[in-house]
Amino acid sequence: MEPRVLGKTNIQLSPIIMGTWQTGKAMWTGIDDTQSEKAIHAAMDAGVTTFDTAEVYGNGHSEKILGKAVGSKRDQVVILSKVFSNHLKNDQVIDACNRSLKNLGTDYLDLFQIHWPPGSFGSKKIPLEETMEALLKLKDQGKIRAIGVSNFSIDQLKAIFEIGPIESLQPPYSLLWRQAETDLLPWCSKNKVTVLAYSPMAQGLLTGKFGPDHQFEKGDHRSSNRLFQNDIYPKAQETLEALRPIAEKKGITLAQLALAWVIAKPGVCAIAGARNAQQTIDNAKAGKVTLTEAEMEELDRISQPVVDLLDENPVQWKW
Predict the structure, then answer these.
(1) Is 233 a known active-site residue?
(2) Number of domains in the chain
(3) Residues 186-214 pLDDT 10s
(4) Among 11, 23, 157, 232, whose Cα sits 20 to 30 Å from the Cα of 79?
(5) At what angle do helices 293-307 and 233-250 cross, to 10 degrees?
(6) 135: closest CA among 117, 151, 156, 113?
(7) Where are the alpha helices (DSSP H) in the chain?
(8) What is the CATH number of the domain that holds 53?
């Protein structure tokens, strides 16, 4: 996989990034720590150099498993983590970073991101200036190499960009979830902010593994995803059926097709989660798939009926 540069830094990312929300176990079902470690090892062997985690993923459990799996190969990988919206006061940001460093068994993070904007989930609305002051201090200390944000609106992104150096934005983005195209993607491209697309396979929907009557196990947060609700899901299934012949013709899976579409966008990487080694190997292969302009247009056309059913709310879940 050809590496991509993070924002205006010299940090290089793999276009396919392994996401480790599942690794934290919380809000997921059927996750096994041993399999998670094997998945991380397999990702590294397959050419994935970049791993995304967060303090809130299992209250540090994801970070601990990732750190254990990376072990002595820390200098061969790029690690991205996040501070949650309830830890955005100056001292809280510092403490959160130090916890993440301890969990990961490292003395620096390549990218430290604000996971959700201040005020999210009932948290106190801390001024962006206060949070940025702490992030810049951590950067000066060498504990973080770059600063990013996640789930920020265009106005929030512009506001923090005026306060300090932002190298990345992490929004939900996939063939079926495309609100970011309206203003975020063009703005990021213009300002050299790398887009780290999460849920690029629409939380598994674009893999084709969920049939028309699929029911999630209790405790799986995907049951509240808008794309899996009764008003959207049938149309999504129609879209999948239309996508299958394209994937089959190219000799790839539906998941690889979905990932290839995301990373074909300039300045965009795809954060792909996995619960076992085979999934990470399959995801990594998408980094070598090329799509023609005609194929990109066809994928856009096929997915549009689902996109048309969604409103402008960028939050995927009905929480």
Answers:
(1) no
(2) 1
(3) 999 999 999 999 999 998 899 988 867 77
(4) 157
(5) 170
(6) 113
(7) 33-45, 61-70, 90-104, 128-140, 154-161, 184-190, 233-250, 254-263, 277-285, 293-307
(8) 3.20.20.100
> Is 297 part of a structural domain of the chain?
yes
Its domain, for residue 63, covers 4-307
In a domain, 318, yes or no: no
Place of tokens 């893999």: 207
Residue-wise pLDDT for 248-294, tens only, equals: 999 999 999 999 999 999 999 999 999 999 999 999 999 999 999 99
Residue pair 28/21 in contact (Cβ under 8 Å)? The answer is yes
The active-site residue, picked from 57, 173, 198, 233, is: 57
Average per-residue pLDDT for the chain: 95
pTM for the model stands at 0.95
Amino acid, res. 35: Q
Residue 313 lies in a domain: no
Give the residue from 312, 202, 213, 269 showing the smallest Cα distance to 51: 269
**166 part of a folded domain:** yes
